[in-house]
Amino acid sequence: MRSTLSNRYFIIGIILVILCISVIVFTRLHSSTPPVTQTEPAQLEPQHVVIGKSLQGRTIDAYSYGTGATHLLFVGGIHGGYEWNSVLLAYTFMDYLEANPDTIPKNITVTIIPAANPDGVYAVTNKEGRFVVSDVSTSSTILASGRFNAHTVDLNRNFDCKWQPQSTWQTKIVSAGATAFSEPESIALKSFTTRVHQDAVIFWHSQSNAIYASQCLHGILPTTLDIMNAYSKASKYSSNTSFDAYSTTGAADDWLASINIPAITVELQTHNSIEWERNLSGIKALFDYFDQKK
User: Fold this and answer.
1) What is the CATH number of the domain that holds 241?
2) 142 vs 158: CA distance, rounded Å
3) What share of the chain is helix, strand, coil (3-state, %, to 5)?
4) Is residue 42 part of a domain?
5) pTM of the entire structure?
6) Quick check: 245 and 239 in contact, CB under 8 A?
7) How far apart, in Å, are the Cα atoms of 199 and each of 52, 187, 224, 260, 284?
8) Environment class of residue 155 by beta-carbon count within 10 Å: exposed (0-12), middle (13-18) or buried (19+)?
9) Into how many domains does the chain fold?
10) Are the C-beta atoms of 282 and 227 separated by less than 8 Å?
11) How far is CA 69 from CA 66, 89, 201, 224, 251, in A?
12) Could you tell me if 132 and 13 lie in one domain?
C-alpha cells in the first residue's frame, strides 16, 4: 500500500515539474523582446514636375524636397553643356538630399532645376537626363556650341532686364533672342518662378570662382547681399556686387531682382569639377540663414 502511494506521489511530482517547466518556457517565449534589426534610413523622395520643354522637346524638370513655407530654388545648366559641371553639381545635390533628408530645415522647401537648357546639355553629353563625366565631349567646338539653345540663343541673355537683341559673351557677340522671353526655356523658368514664389534663387555657373549679386534698375536687394555673403563665407568663393569682366544684358538673375526675388550667381572655379564640399557648405549656410528668419 505504501509502495503504491509512493509511486503515485512520484508520478504527480514529475507531472508538476513538467508543468512548471512548460509554464516557464511559455512565459519566456511570449514575453521576450524581439531582436532589434538595423534598417537603412528612409530616403526622401522628391516631388517632380515638368515646368516646360526645350525647343527640341526635352523636358525641363524641377524636383522639390521638403514642405516648408520658405522656397529656395537652385538652377544648373542655363548655359547647357558648356557648363556641364553645374548640372552634375545639381544632380549631386539631389542625391545628397535624398540620402540626408534631415538636412532641410522644417520651414524650407528646396527645388532644384538641374538643367535649364537640356538641349545644350545633350549636345555635349549625348545623354537624356543624368550623365557621367565620361559622357562629356572634350571637343572645344562642341562645348562652346552647347552653351546655346537650338536657336543658338544664349538663354542667360534672354530675360527682361536691360534686354537687347545682341549681347556679349567674353569677346563674342551672341544672340539674345528676338525679344525678351522669346525662347521656351526662359519662358519655363519665368513661369515657374512667378507661379511658385521663390524666397531666393541660386544659379550655378562656371568658371569665375566667385559669387555675384543680382541687380537690375533699382540696386541690390538687402536679402541678396545677405545670402551672397553667407554662401561666400562658408564656401570661400569671393563675393562681388557686380560682374565687370564684360558687359551683359538680359541675365536671368538680374530679371529676378527686377521682380523683387533675391538671386545670386555662384561661379565654380573650373569647367570640370563640381567642388562639392565648398558648395555644400554654402548651401548649409543658406539653410541656416533662412531657418533663423522663420
Assistant:
1) 3.40.630.10
2) 22
3) 40, 20, 40
4) no
5) 0.86
6) no
7) 21, 19, 10, 9, 16
8) buried
9) 2
10) no
11) 9, 25, 15, 19, 27
12) no
Residue 41: inside a domain: no
287 in the same domain as 163: yes
Tell whether 29 and 165 lie within a shared domain. Answer: no
- 54 plus 30 within the same structural domain: no
Whole-number Å distance between alpha carbons of 102 and 287 = 12
- pLDDT, tens only, 228-285: 999 999 999 999 999 888 889 999 999 999 999 999 999 999 999 999 999 999 999 9
Structural domain includes residue 26: yes
Amino acid at 201: V
Residues 141 and 271 in one domain: yes
Co-location of 252 and 202 in the same domain:
yes
Q: Select from 275, 279, 284, 286 the least CA-distant residue to 85.
A: 275
| Type of residue at 126 | N
181 near 53, Cβ under 8 Å? Answer: no
State the average pLDDT for the chain: 90
* Residue found under cell 508520478: 11
**Domain membership flag for residue 158:** yes
**Residue 3: is it exposed, middle or buried by C-beta count within 10 angstroms (0-12/13-18/19+)?**
exposed
- Give CA–CA dist 110/74, Å, rounded: 8
Largest CA distance in the chain: 123
